[in-house]
Amino acid sequence: MLALSMFQINSKYSEELAQESLEWIKEITGEDINVDGSMDNFYELLKDGTLLCRLVNLIQPNSVKKINESKMAFKCMENINQFLDVAKNLGVPPQETFQTVDLWERQNLNSVVICLQSLGRKRELCSSGHIVCLSPLLISPGPVRTFQAHNFGKPSIGPKEAEKNVRNFSEEQMRAGQGVISLQYGSNKGATQSGINFGNTRHM
Known about the structure:
This protein has helices at 2-10, 15-29, 39-46, 50-59, 73-89, 100-104, 109-121, 171-186, and strands at residues 126-128, 131-133, 150-151, 154-155. The chain is built from eight helices and four strands.
């Protein structure tokens, strides 16, 4: 049953999305890594967490204070945990992150891909000079270039996230809108308790 469950989880793994994620990491870090999306290559590149920590440090400088280069299990898992903490702070929702063992023990590499794709889509951050700002309130305008788009002042991956469409109306516009609503209600002579009727009342 456990073997079947693992098979079902691994069947969701997309080599195409994994390769896209690795290409994005290569673009951000400038490291000459193998971007093949196979599970074996994806796992070998990321399992110790060092590349992931270097990635988020380039997105938000000094977000990981110390990257463990030791290959001891608990040190590697500490790296992965540090990456996850930063990813959440950068806006990746909890349901799009993964458990440390998903990567370290290769239990669910698909969830790792999902996390990287989510991180690559975030638009909450921008770069101001060489500093990356975390709060949306600190965002300052700047040039936008593309990998597909630039998030955190860095290339992004995946579809562009929906942005809030905030409209600010003047007091005059608000009054005009209220007048239209009042006029509409005032002209509905066919209205009854059962609702507003358009045209003649239908008799049954």
